[in-house]
Amino acid sequence: MRLKAGKKSLLLSLSFSLAFSFLAWAENKTAKDLPPKYKQWLEEEVVYIITPLEKDVFLRLETDRERDLFMEAFWRQRDPTPGTPVNEFKEEHDRRIQYVNRTFGRTTSLPGWKTDRGRFYILLGEPNDIERFTGEAEIYNTEVWFYQGLAKYGLPTGFYLLFYQKGGVGDYVLYSPASDGPQALLTTYLGDQANYLQAYRKLKKISPGLANVSLSLIPGESDRFGRPSLASDILLQNIQTIPEKEVKDRYAEKFLLYKNIVEVEYTANYIDSDSMIKIFQDPSGLYFVHYCIELNRFSVREHEGKYSTNLKLNGQVSDMSGKTIYQYEGSLPVGLDEDQLKNITYKPFELYDRFPLVPGNYKFSVLLKNEASQEFTSAEKDIVIPQDESSPRLSELLLGYKTEVSPGTGLKPFRLGQAQILCQPNKIFQRQDKLFLNFQVLGRTPELEQKGSIQFDILRQEEKVFSVTRKVSDYGNKLDILEEFPLANFSPGIYMMEVTLRSDRQALSTEREHFEITSVSSLPRPWVFSRTLFSVSHPAYSFAVGQQYFNQGQFDQALIRLERAYDTQPNSQEYALALARVYLILKEYEKAKKVLSPFQDSPEASYDVQFSLGRAHQGLGEFDQAISVFNKAITRFGTNTNLLNSLGESYYGRGALKEALAAWTKSLEINPDQKEIKDKVESLRKNDRDKFLRG
């Protein structure tokens, strides 16, 4: 990680990768639907360097503002020196386009960027060498470009590109040894297009070097084959995939996913990250989602020798239909002194966190924003919290490179028992490391305690290289199991940890996790910022779980948890309101009134408290009190349809029909599309007309 000092911030740059599942896209737009400015940008300025994913996302944007922000993000992701005022990549790209338009557009009606030479110049830049064959009687005008030093893109250490004037007219076109062959370069027709050897021999008499390139664009390869090489066409295809190798384009997915959620100033500033999300059970029986986010880039502000930033978390859990079950926010101040900053300069930054979640199938996403740099990243995963614990099974496996004893009752992410496991999403280890394996055996039975065993296997390419079996009884009644495996005897490579729970030799549950042993001598471990949370007995957990059950519509389960939270902290307006909402749904109006009444005259009483208290009075038939509460709410918070409709119902219940009519009429002025309220208003007006006619 490199440290770059700016005027107000320090940019700590990392390079770590993350595998991300592709979004399910809707039907695409086409470039012709775009305003001219953006159509030109897509079809001319970046046509060769934009990836398919980036193009797909750009075509799905709905406003010019979104397109402008995406274009800014597009160039930011390619900036080799983020944090500096110059984007060297964009400057070089603009130079290449100007060069090809000026140089290759002179001999053709096409603009230079549309020519074959222009396309490959934009992709690869200036060749190391160009050899031209012009004015020759026996071969068409030809250019041979030579490149080297592009192995970082998976290309050969050196290679050629050949362009020729097909048939002696028009612009130069790209030559393919397999599709065109040496005959295409000769002005004389030899009778058989497939007679490569005859054409090659004639071309070799004219120019041996050009003859070799005509068989293969890769130096030395033509000697091995004696005929045009398919490897050359593979090379040409690989060159055109360079844009996908130059940028991690999943930022485009994140842009589309979060463009309506993230503040405008953050939108273009997605930073790459890696993440890991695991589910473990607390000894209390409550399940927790543990997750870590490893940032690709971490920025801090400098002020008087101190370095700081504020990280903002926004998590959301929704069910498979998209209904929000749980949301949370957090603000995490990070402060460093000079020595601490130096200590982490070449290390990744990892954030650990955890939260409780009730049984169900969910989509989880968490947004992490860095206020110092106005950058954001995110993690997403489908997760399952099991409902049935009647059968023995294993939890997910957690592989760590270190453990830290963490005494006390506070909860820490990835702490199972007294040990917090330090882990990374990439699960890379050195041979001198110990691999720490943490997991849980859930749903234990007496039979499992007597006959159960746990088999640990390490596999490489599906072949066992290590195996050991232990009895379940060896671990006593521990929920959390920790094992360690020295890696000194394992050679570098990709491995799989496989753990199998058995009872009387029958496999009950198996969990697997890949890991890598690297040959590098030094592996920087991250600087971990781990949130420490309340102990599990804190009412905040009962409140969170109660809210989750409430959002799922499981009101009986919600009532148990929310009453527990309220009984612990009856002075909490938040707890009282959540409990009152359940009471209102269950038509326990007296109980709702009881928990909310202490807050009704408080200057901090929220709109929801006032409205819910009014509904409680209304449910009890206490219409005068309800009217008083609703009017206070209107005076303090202003009118809305819910308040006016409830006020109208209270007036109606008291028999004050004119006042009810006035409240509902005003509600319809705000929102005319309320059929039920319209019907009530028409009914009252009709009754009033009937009374007049009878009089």
Give an overview of the whole structure.
By secondary structure, this protein is an alpha+beta fold. Among the domains are: 133-229, no CATH class; 389-524, Immunoglobulin-like (Sandwich), CATH 2.60.40; 554-694, Serine Threonine Protein Phosphatase 5, Tetratricopeptide repeat. Helix content is 35%, strand content 28%. It is built from 23 helices and 27 strands. The strands form 6 sheets. Strands 1, 2, 9, 10, 11, 13 and 14 form a 7-stranded antiparallel β-sheet that branches. A 5-stranded mixed β-sheet has the order 20-26-25-22-23. A hairpin with a 4-residue loop joins strand 13 and strand 14. The radius of gyration is 34 Å and the shape is globular.
What is the helix tally? 23
| Global geometry | globular
Question: What portion of residues is helical?
Answer: 25-40%
| Low-pLDDT runs | 1-27
CATH classification, class level of the domain at 554-694 = Mainly Alpha
Mean pLDDT: 89
Count of individual beta strands = 27
Shape-level CATH architecture of the domain at 554-694: Alpha Horseshoe
Task: Classify the fold: give the CATH topology of the domain at 554-694.
Answer: Serine Threonine Protein Phosphatase 5, Tetratricopeptide repeat
- Provide the β-strand percentage band: 25-35%
Rg, rounded, reads 34 Å
Give the CATH H-level superfamily of the domain at 554-694. Tetratricopeptide repeat domain
Main sheet, how many strands, which sense, barrel?
Answer: 7 strands, antiparallel
How far is it from the N-terminal to the C-terminal residue, by CA? 89 Å
